Amino acid sequence: MFHLSVRHRRRVLVANLISTSVFPLAITGSTAVVPAATAELPGADALGPWIVVGYNGLFAAALLLAGVLADRTSRTKFFALGNIVVAVSGVLSALVPDLDTLVALRVLAGVGAAMCAAGGSAMVLAVYPPEERHRVYGYVGAVLGTSLALGPFAAQGLMAVGGWPMVFVVPAAVAGIAVLTSIGLPSLRTTNLPREFDLAGAIIFGLTIAAAVTAFGFALPVWATVGLLVGTAAGIMVLVRVERRTADPAIPLDLLRIPAYRAYALGTGAFMGILVVGLTALPQLGAHLGAGQVGLLLSLLTIPSTLLPLLAARIARRWAATLVTLALVICAGTAFALQLTSAPIALFLGAAVLGVCLGLTEGVPDGQALKHVPSHRGGAGAALFSTTRMTVETLTLAAATGAATLFTPATALAVPGVVCLAAAATLHHARPR
Q1: Which domains does the chain carry?
Q2: What average pLDDT does this structure show over 103-128?
Q3: How confident is the model over 210-230, as a mean pLDDT?
Q4: Among 414, 412, 409, 370, which residue's Cα sits nearest to residue 389?
Q5: How far is CA 341 from CA 203, 230, 285, 352, 404, in A?
Q6: Is 339 exposed, middle or buried (0-12, 13-18, 19+ CB in 10 A)?
Q7: Is-contact 72 197, C-beta < 8 A?
Q8: CA separation for the pair 239, 200 (Å, rounded)
Q9: Structure pTM?
Q10: Angle between helical axes of 199-217 and 222-244 (0-180°, round to 10)
């Protein structure tokens, strides 16, 4: 671990928090601009969805490799470079002549976002000891929760003010501020590392995860989904062979053998699953409500994540496992209860309960899991945690979408409810006896 002054440690944290605030707006904003950009720019309409798919897919593909590289290079410079990529690609996205160029730039932005996430985590974990990480990730949770809650409103507001290009320009400006904040920070480079590392394993792992996330997370043509699933299966088989022959694997699978790390990764994926499914399913269940009531419904689900994470970090000092386990069980019970009625009072109460549970656990699983990650492997450890969360979230959303199609919108909520129960049981068994 690098021993820095309190001022420098705070600057590391602030730079990471500024960069982190860009992620939710980049995702929700990309989704919001698809119709307008597709209508305005020349190019095949089929390219529209790839504005989102390209960003998300490359973020997933590059995340682990970015984590490994961040641990092996100057963490500060790697973080700054990632933000520069995000800033430049964002500005250029506002000036594109056609859809093809926009999709290419969003792919580049996805790679930059992976570098930001991995570099930021690598910096934070390299300067903050394990006993302080629950507090640090309380701040991270507060920023993420606020960005997630305000992201859709911010995207619509920016489009109303300056059109869809503003949705890319503003995050680019924020990424630029993150770069400026990192100027003058120590390099934070670990020396005496092996010269060779498992580049092939990191790339194959990233491409496999990206194929799975894209196949399950987006409504692509059948041939594309089948092709991606075949590619996922092939990637898994090749990855197993490569990792068995590698003396120093890039994928820190030894962390997944730590019960708490594994359980919290599943738990945070379950929370994100019930959030994204709730954002889709609750408005469908409240189809008989007015527009203002639906807005209130979604606010009850998201606003607590802007208010409660810092309180959650305080509670997590002593009762982290109990807090997360209880929240998972309550989320599951609420999801199952909403199978019985779609009365307005039940929907509002259910959204409020889910929102409070999500707010009181925002950032808590991250802080608890990453306590087990060695400082010199912070980038790879955080990247694997995020990849696990992303995979659980994507598979949950895909299963919920299928359940809603086959049965009713309420059934969609039962899927993340089951995942929450499984995560609660896993965390309960992971607790030290």
Answers
A1: 1-197 (1.20.1250.20), 252-433 (1.20.1250.20)
A2: 94
A3: 84
A4: 370
A5: 47, 40, 9, 16, 16
A6: middle
A7: yes
A8: 9
A9: 0.89
A10: 150
